[in-house]
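Quick one - inputs below.
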Amino acid sequence: MTPWNQVTIIGTGLIGGSLGLAMKRAGLARRVVGVGHRPSTLDQALASGAADETTLDAAEGVRGSDLVVLATAVGLFEPLLRQAADSLADGAVVIDVGSTKAQVVRTGEALVPAGRAFVGCHPIAGSEKRGIDYADAGLFDGAVCILTPTDATPADALARVTDTWAALGMRVVRLSPAEHDHLLAEVSHLPHVVAAALVQAVRPDAEPLVGSGWRDTTRVAGGDPGLWRDILLTNSGDVAAALARFREALEALQDAVARGDGDRIQHLLADAKARRDRIVGEQ
Amino acid sequence: MTPWNQVTIIGTGLIGGSLGLAMKRAGLARRVVGVGHRPSTLDQALASGAADETTLDAAEGVRGSDLVVLATAVGLFEPLLRQAADSLADGAVVIDVGSTKAQVVRTGEALVPAGRAFVGCHPIAGSEKRGIDYADAGLFDGAVCILTPTDATPADALARVTDTWAALGMRVVRLSPAEHDHLLAEVSHLPHVVAAALVQAVRPDAEPLVGSGWRDTTRVAGGDPGLWRDILLTNSGDVAAALARFREALEALQDAVARGDGDRIQHLLADAKARRDRIVGEQ
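Output:
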């Protein structure tokens, strides 16, 4: 695909920094401008090659760019877009990489002026690690990226954004913003809440006894609390619904354990194992 | 330490097979007898070097051994010990590697005849994988092994068993059987139940969207349903208590999400992250 002439990445952390590295490596961006609020992070973005130029000012940072990427915590998208909206070049495409989409896309479409496009994106990549220190040009390779276009999304912007993620090795899937939030609540937001509660259920005496199972089960609870607060706040309805489904499944197991019903326990565990083996095997 | 003259491992799966390999590599066993119920598994145990000799008959298998290891699902310990008890050599030490201890130790001490010792052991090693195919001589290295002696445990047997696990690179910890079950419910049995329920909360449409977070959070749900049925059945009281603690923590988060209380969400997530970082960092 024709490379973007200038790409502005607002938020040069794990995802933003990795995206800068990946786009440059793939020849998808002639020039990358990094926007951040900490000079030290911006220096690292420059030093690592994730950005060619940096600024603390979002309005200044987006000037002249044909692609602008919002890569901060979801809760900062709105204030940042308000700052930068009037400086967006004619024809500019704005995307985000946030983990929730309905509220983000509503805000994005409302704030991007006429002649500019907003396309909601969610590359399902990353880890519980945070910051440019962990940036990795290969982060997106082989993972899924969900785009959430609406009736207001210009077809040409959608096509270019699709091609960009595909060129980074991602499998691009399209969903409505509502559908995205609904499904991601089950496979991502719910596990986060559950992992945090699992950590909190452990008493000090048990701490030295955790093994690899516990470490894996709770890994995501090591993620950034601010990022996750924003995710849960902007998808609270779907998270509540996923929690209800989870509690129903949990209560079935809990009940079987309380009754000492070995056949029922085995049936439920075997069902979970079969489903998981299939889901993981299909990937 | 002086090696055991002959070690019988009943159940040559992932843990039993790994133990045979590890003990032979470390020079802890002059000879290993493998007992199983499937000839093909026993053939593999021989071929891999995890056993020097095999039999389908537990009574025959324990004859002349100074160490006998129960390494099947917890639910089979009692029938196997009943079969083998009369054939145990004078002075033999019987250990198990099961994930629950109170019921196991009660049974073991009741069934082992006078002049033989029973020592409950739980090496916290393994994975969701199952079977001799995944046996690994290094499985125990650096992990924790919990021994659960009682007033009835002979000091010399306890010392030799301690030395054996330590010689395999394990950090040996002693707890009462009840304490063990109480603590393991929080760090192992609870996460298993929760992971299974997480899998069951995912609807088919969401399956293609699972990422590495979901895969890690649910990994243990890929474990063997029969093994885990036995674990949950033999520790149902502590599992119920751990579930109650977990649900309390979950409800606090659920409530904060429902109220859209960002400060409270962040506080709870930050607390979980800090605890987890500390627990994992201390290991």
